[in-house]
Design a protein that fits this description.
Length: 306
């Protein structure tokens, strides 16, 4: 048998309707004193929009349980919203600023890159060059079949184009991961040179849009997997609370709890990584776990039997 502060709290916790004909007495200290206020008041309106969900995720940890009980559609919209926000910070704004700075792709290709040509599946460039577009680098170095790691920068996404291979490399906290590796001929036709590149500028803008969608998809997958890992801890904590939550609820709750961490890590990256990425990531992990525990802590007493 569980213990409750009063009958009203028992009814709310067990899902019973209020007692018919009984209105709370405004002078009743048991109902209105802050120290007796029901700690189960975590509900949020079913139609809570993504901006309000973000505000609650940052400022009201006790309502994360209510967010986790919103519809799957609301959760999907929030996931798209937060990953779009991160993509704008990390990719859209830097790329737009770079294109404005260099005077557009035509000026960039005509005046800021060396001559190159693809012959027999091999790329030859007069000299190595790098094009930086926000958080993305395009590195062309044909001194070897594959671009040397020493020639790579620290931006999150790098297209490394060597003499015979093209690699897509993701860099995080100094660690490089090859996401894709293909032959030159898989990307560039025979005889491809700078003039053909200039004539294909519209397609390059389409590639930039696809690159933004890739960044958004990668960001969503990364934080959904992180929420899955947090759920391994959150599920055991949720069971101790005695609340009727399933694993899907806890998974969504853990994703919402990451909001501050996601913003801190990506703002740091978008502003040039002035703080070490590993330290900011650790701070984000600590805040997320703190929010998970803070959310469930008030309900631990309900799981105790008399």
């Amino acid at each position: 048998m569980k213990s409750y502060l009063n009958d009203e709290e028992r009814r709310k916790y067990e899902g019973e309707p209020p007692e018919p004909g009984k209105d709370p007495d405004p002078s009743d200290d048991e109902n209105h004193s802050p120290k007796h206020e029901s700690s189960l008041d975590f509900e949020v309106p079913e139609r809570t929009n993504v901006v309000e969900q973000m505000r609650i995720s940052i400022m009201s940890p006790k309502q994360l349980i209510g967010l986790s009980q919103l519809s799957v559609g609301r959760f999907v919209r929030y996931t798209l919203f937060i990953t779009l926000l991160i993509t704008v910070m990390l990719y859209v704004i830097p790329v737009a600023a770079t294109l404005f700075h260099v005077g557009g792709l035509r000026n960039l290709f005509e005046n800021k890159m060396s001559d190159f040509k693809v012959t027999d599946g091999t790329l030859e460039a007069s000299k190595p060059f790098t094009i930086s577009l926000g958080t993305c680098d395009i590195v062309v170095d044909t001194t070897d079949n594959i671009v040397s790691k020493d020639a790579l920068g620290t931006r999150p996404l790098t297209f490394a184009i060597g003499k015979k291979k093209v690699q897509v490399i993701y860099t995080s906290n100094g660690l490089q991961q090859v996401l894709l590796e293909r032959k030159i001929s898989d990307f560039f036709p025979e005889g491809f040179d700078r003039d053909m590149l200039i004539s294909g500028i519209p397609g390059f803008y389409i590639a930039l849009i696809l690159g933004g969608l890739f960044v958004m998809a990668f960001t969503a997958v990364k934080y959904l997997l992180a929420a899955l890992l947090y759920m391994l801890i959150g599920w055991s904590v949720a069971k101790k609370s005695g609340l009727d939550l399933n694993k899907g609820n806890v998974f969504r709750l853990c994703f919402y709890a990451q909001t501050i961490g996601m913003i801190l890590v990506n703002v740091n990256s978008a502003t040039g990584g002035y703080l070490p990425g590993s330290i900011v990531s650790m701070v984000g992990i600590f805040i997320t776990l703190h929010y998970v525990f803070k959310t469930f802590r008030p309900y631990f007493r309900y799981a105790q039997d008399e």
